[in-house]
Each structure stands twice: as C-alpha cells, then as structure tokens.
Amino acid sequence: MNRHPIASRRSTVRTPSDWSLRTFPPESHTDLVRRRGGLISVPRRLAPPPPAAAAGPAKLLLNVTLERSLGPVQVVMAQEKSVSDLIRASVEVYGKEKRRPLLRVSDPRCFELHYSPFSLECLRPEEKLISLGSRNFFLCTKRSTSSNSSCSEEANMEPNCPFALTHLMDFLL
Question: Each residue of 71-87: b (16+ CB within 10 Å) or e?
C-alpha cells in the first residue's frame, strides 16, 4: 500500500488526447446544427426541439367576470375558438363551480361579452379569440328589445320585486 496519495495520482494521469475522447460523444450520436458561428456538432439529446407548430394548437387562459359576481372565472380555450364558445364555456364553469349569485338564466344565448363593464359595445359572437387582443372580459345578460324572448322576461322580472335588496342576500349564503 502506497502511503503517498500524490504519487498514486501521478501514475493515473491521463494525456490530453484521452480527455478529448471522453469529453466529446462519438460521431454516431451527433447531429450538425447551423449556428451563427458556423456548423457545430451537438449531441442528439441536446439538439433543439422541433418547431412549435408540430406540438399542437396553442391554448389561451382567459378571465371572464360575470355580471354581479365577485371574481372572474378562468377558462382555458384554443385560440381558434369564437366568442360564442367562450360565453358557453364561461357559463358552464360558473354553474359547475356553484358560484354566488346563482345565474337566473343558464342559456348562453342570453349573454353578451364585453371588454369591460364600462364598454357599451359587445363583441360579435363569430369573432375569433386570437383576434381580440385581450384576455380579460366581462359577461352580462343581453338587453333585448323584444318582449317575446325568455331572456328579456327574466331581465324585466327583477325591478318588479317588492323587496329591492333581496338579491343582495345571495352574497350572505
């Protein structure tokens, strides 16, 4: 047994040519990648991933605040979907989460989507989500002029209530 550890290390010292063989993988496991500096050799497991288009459609995280609700509903949808699909999904999520106040109408056709509660113009149902330019929206009931629709009947029932503040009790439950 050798008492000098330095002497034993000297005997196992490798030449620089040995190190170069160990630091680079064999040529069978490399691909050539074009970079700004020219062609370089990169191991396949470190090669850049394929383009994002092959990964699948991109999804969007959208926040939709419903009229009279305390917080927004978060919905994940594909960017190719339309505003009407977002309205339908938002109403479904709001109902599944059993949020308060409860919706008087669960039909998505009775709602319209706005950029904010202060925006008077509603978004067209056929518009694509990717073209809207925002990820935060406001959903409110339609203000219909025809008295034959069930949505307008529901909207008109609220002011005729003898106890005007009873709709605030939903928040206390």
Answer: ebbebebeeebbbbbbb
